[in-house]
Amino acid sequence: MTNGALLANAIDRDFGVFLTADQNLEYQQNLSESPLGVVVLHGKSNKIDDLRPLVPGALEAIERVKPGEVEHVFRLRIA
Question: What does the domain layout of the chain look like in residue ranges?
Answer without folding.
Answer: 3-74
